[in-house]
Each structure stands twice: as C-alpha cells, then as structure tokens.
C-alpha cells in the first residue's frame, strides 16, 4: 500500500492526556489517529501528556493505523519541547497547528529530522499561502481546521459551509497540485449522524481524502462516505473492461451507460479499484 492508496477516510483526534481514549483507539476501525497535544489537552496537563503519549505509542497496538502527533505551535511555551519529544516517538508524522507559511515548516523540520510533517490549515494567512505550504519538501498532509478558520473569518455556522468554501477549495487546489493528502475539518455535533453524513458527502464530492473526527461514534458514517461505493466499483470495472475491448479493436474511446470513456476516466477507475482493495486489506487485518 503506497501513499497514494493508503486510506485516510477517518482520522480521529485523541487527547494525548487521556489514557482510556488512547487505549480505546486501538479497537476502532479508523484509518489514522491524530494524537493531540494541542487544543484537546488542558494547560495543566500539557507537559504530562507528552510522557503519556510517548509511552502509549511505544507500547504499540495501533496496527496499521497512521499515527500523527499534533504538537502545540512553535510560538507557544510548549511547542519546541513537544517537537523534540515527537521526534523520538513511534509516529508516522508530526502535525503543526496554525501554519501561516512554509517558514514555520522549516523550523519544525529542523526539530524533527526525517519525520513527515502535516500542516493544520486554519488561518487566513495559511489559506493565502496554501500553495507554498503544500510545496514544502517535508509536507505530506493537510488537515483543515474549520473551527479556528471560522473563528478567524468570523463566519456563522451553515450546513452548506458556503462561508468557507473558498478556503476549502484553495487548500484542495494546493494539495492536489503537489500530491499531498488532504482531510476535511471536524463536525462538532458528534451525536448528529445525519448532519455528519451530509458534511462527509460534501467533503467527498469536493475531493477530500477523508475527514477528521472527534468521537468514536462518527467513524462508521465517515468510513462509508469516503470509501468507493459498490456502484462506483461496478462502474469502474465495466469502464476498464469496455475500454480494453475498444482498444483491442483499435479505438481510443468506449461508451458505458451512454457516456464516453477515455483514457483519463480509466485512470480514475483504476484509482477507485486500488482504494477499494486497500480498504479491503485494512478490514481483513
Ligand atoms: C467530545 C468528548 C469530550 C466526549 O467524551 P466522552 O464524554 O468521554 O464521550 P463518551 O462517554 O461518549 O465516550 C464513549 C467512549 O469513547 C471514548 N472516547 C471518546 N472520545 C474519544 C476519542 N476522541 N478517541 C478515542 N476514544 C474516545 C471514551 O473514552 C469512552 O470510552 P469507554 O469509557 O472505554 O467506553 C471526547 O470525545 C473528546 O475529547 N473528543 C476529542 C476532542 C478533541 O480531540 N478536540 C480537539 C480536536 S478538534 C480541533 O481542534 C480541530 C481543529 O483544530 C479546528 O480548529 O477545527
Ligand atoms: Mg484548530
């Protein structure tokens, strides 16, 4: 499973200070976990959470779930020590909050040599510098921070997210242009399955690779929304078969369900099948 097919449908935040939640996550069918040292951890617990988290990651048990550690900003009193601690943790990536520009990633890269870096995209400056941030050589993923973004923009909550569509699109454009994974922001009302489903579907329609979550009850809805559906898998298989048959007859175009199928559609079809296989492999673990 490579970086392009590794599923990131569901990305669950876990407060790095909560041992019970750290243990619970080992049993949840999430594709990735953000072990949080930032906003989910109370000020009095910030320093202790580093040791709790380091011990939990060292003990293992998270299987093939991607392990991402979110540190505090480097401009806070905890950030640099968090980064030095994260550099020694059993994790796949370090996530920096409130990234305004690529120079902050340079500073983090010097503290966590060899680790992949992910960026929280949640400030107005970050939106305006999204392309330069995505282009950073250590940067492998974007996480939308829609709560902080709403705060900075002074938007009101709307189910259609119209006030932040431009920001979401700017980050999507930057991520796709540089082959970077991008996951959507959290849905705060964690008992509202219908609202979550609608926002997941909107995120999938827009091109997000997955969504960040705050509670185990959100995982199932999210995994379903960001996995290829049976209809999509069936269509992809028929497109590939039809295109191969057309090519064998010297044609460059096939027709499936009344719609043309060209080489570019086959690229998408093969990606869908690869994603479905990768998800099936995870489920079989
Ligand atoms: C929201 C919560 C505080 C609710 O917690 P709680 O009241 O304990 O929920 P439940 O009693 O329903 O929990 C049932 C069991 O599930 C475990 N649990 C709960 N949450 C998690 C979790 N996130 N990961 C793993 N396990 C979890 C409980 O321990 C219970 O287990 P058990 O007793 O064994 O059955 C809580 O869900 C929570 O703290 N969520 C995370 C909040 C968080 O991480 N916030 C920061 C990230 S959001 C953000 O910052 C986005 C961004 O920066 C932006 O700007 O938008
Ligand atoms: Mg935030």
How would you summarize this macromolecular structure in one to three sentences?
This protein is about 45% helix and about 15% strand.
Description of the structure:
This is CoA ester lyase. Belongs to the HpcH/HpaI aldolase family. It holds the Pfam family HpcH_HpaI. Residues 9-216 form the HpcH/HpaI aldolase/citrate lyase domain. The chain has 285 residues and is α/β, with parallel strands linked by helices. The strands form 2 sheets. Strands 1-2-3-4-5-6-7-8 form an 8-stranded parallel beta barrel, surrounded by 5 helices. It has helices spanning 19-24, 46-59, 79-87, 102-111, 124-128, 130-134, 146-153, 165-177, 193-206, 219-226, 230-248, 263-283, and strands at residues 10-15, 32-36, 66-70, 93-96, 116-121, 139-144, 181-184, 210-213, 254-256, 259-261. The mean pLDDT is 96. It contains 12 helices and 10 strands. Strand 9 (254-256) and strand 10 form a beta hairpin. The radius of gyration is 20 Å and the shape is globular. Helices cover 46% and strands 16% of the residues. It has 2 domains: 10-226, Phosphoenolpyruvate-binding domains (TIM Barrel, Alpha-Beta Barrel); 230-283. Helix 11 (230-248) crosses helix 12 (263-283). The site of ligand LIB3CWND has 22 residues, from strand 1, helix 1 and helix 7.
